[in-house]
Amino acid sequence: MANKVGPFWVGPFCISLLHPYPIAIKHPPHKQRTLRTDLQPLHHFNILLPLPSSSHHKGNGIMVGSLALHQHLASPYHHNYLKDQNSLIQPTCLVPLHQVKSMEDFRKAHAQFLKLGLDCIPPYAGELLSACALSAWGSLDYALAIFLNLEEPRTFDYNVMIRAKVNHDQSKSALQLYKEMIERSINPDNFTFPFVLKACALLSDIRGGIQLHGHAIKLGFDEDVFIHNSLINLYGKCRKIELSYKIFELMGSNRTIASWSALLSAYNRMNFCVDCLHLFAKISCEKLKPDESSMVAALSSCSNLGLLGQGRSIHCSLLRNYPTLNIIIQTSLIDMYMKCGQPDKGMLIFDKLHEKNLWTYSAVISGLAMHNNCKKALQVFSDMLNQGLKPDEAIYVNVLSACSHAMMVEEGLKCFNQMRFDHQIKPNAQHYGCLVDLMICAGRLDEAYELIQNMPIEPTDAAWRSILSACKINGDIKLAESAYSKLEQMDAVNAGDCVILSNMYAELQRWEDAAEVRKEIVNRGLVQAPGFSQVEVKGKIHTFVSHDKSFPQSDEVQEMLYQMDWQLRFEGYATDNLRSSEGQSQKIAIAFALMNTSSVSTIRIFTNLRMCSECHKYTELISKVFERDIIVRDRRRFHHFRLGLCSCDNCW
DNA sequence: CTAGGGTTAG
């Protein structure tokens, strides 16, 4: 049954609307107008008014009301409206809002609503708000002005504004609106929570998030799938993975693919890449199909783990299932190919893209730098600037680290200044860290030290660690000690730092000092990640640790290693030099791959440590003697070995 | 009655 609303005045008319749904209209006192009861309606007409564009009457886009004419109107203007008692009157001046495509059109439409006094009447107010606040062409400020003008905003109006603020990166202010709505006793509904939870997630505001979770339960929204998914996301962003999982578990069969995606990305954030891929494989057990979002999460895990095979198979299934791929997933694919040792494949995807954003460029620039193709990285960066994209501080981290990889000191300093002065970006600790690395790579250690001491912000532990590692090579024990003590002050000492310093003492035959630092590892309860090397053979990943003999082919591999040593001796290389643990595991991985792959295929090794120079030398020679391309990803970058040479030009 | 959740480098 339709509700009758009104009567209220529209211009010279008094209108009563047969409203399709219940609405309480209260006019603010200054807008109240008395109905002239002394005048009998002359005629009744029907009138068409624009409908909220997304309502269930979408088809016509127009709402039918009845109009009673209380005054005799002679002007031709009005006659246009009132032609025939039975015909529908089309108020041509009113453009349906869903046809509005620009702020200019919107202003006109809004003016008409204002003139008719409809601007503060639900559902028009909400419709105006959501059009203006949420469309691509809209304006948050304009929407805010409309919103503030509402005497009695409703839940819907608040929801729209909260959502718009979150979209405009104003999460704090969005939460403020939520607070305001509670204070004004306007009840949040099942739509409110996903928006405000997202705001908390973006702010990593775990306390606020828990409060909201409580509110949602209290208001009885403990069955809502959208709210649950938002909660998984919230706890994931706050690194409370147990809580994310708990919600996920609780949802049982109500889980949707979005629940999985949110959980997968939570695992990724914690760097639980193996578990992430396990979960990804389980999606299909629930009769759900992995979609783009969940595949983005899985691809990111593949990138981190260097799993080319699995990354490729995700790519295939994307190509099978989607006619076009969105920019986010394309970026993930580029990143995956870059990090799994196929930069050419990554570039192929990149070159074919017609839409590129900062993240795409960022993935390519850091990928190219990783493969020691720094010139190209800078080329891509300058293309990006020519495209008119505005660089942000994150992309400058990539650009600067590309410069430091390639020892391009002047270029790096130029970029640093360009960032500060042309693009008005204040350098952060990471940028200074890159500069420090740049100086170190160029062998200007004293300048690096001067820089790190005089930089205007607190240096990161990584920057001090760079200094410490550099000392390892040039043997400056004084500098090493001061870098180490800085790390101590920051409470950021790790096992690797202790090893470096201790080895340096040992080199100087200061045995007591060496032992003292070694003891620190135990005292501080530091654990060193076990070094391993991985290689993919026939789609299966094989992982080896140093002196590994615990795998089926171990005996054959030992034989192979013996032969490899023998061959290298002809090249004048004594393999006894190679004693480091990563060297050992890498040797085994290479031997295993040489034995089990075709003689023309490229060997791809993934190791979690940094390659030492002996290991590097060894691999160079193997690539020459066995005429095999070997690509090694160590924890920082790639080395392409071919015929005795490495892409890194012996600088890493 | 209108609207909504999950996705990317360093």
Automatic annotation (TrEMBL):
Cite the InterPro entries for this sequence. DYW_dom (IPR032867), E_motif (IPR046848), PPR_At4g14850-like_plant (IPR046960), PPR_rpt (IPR002885), TPR-like_helical_dom_sf (IPR011990)
Q: Does the keyword Repeat apply?
A: yes
Signal peptide (from-to): none
- Renumbered ranges of PPR repeats: 154-188, 224-258, 357-391
Highest taxon of source: Eukaryota
Q: Does the keyword Repeat apply?
A: yes
Transmembrane spans = none
| Keywords tagged on the record | Repeat
Span of domain DYW: 583-652
Any GO BP annotation: RNA modification
One GO molecular-function entry: zinc ion binding
**In its UniProt entry, what is this protein called?**
DYW domain-containing protein
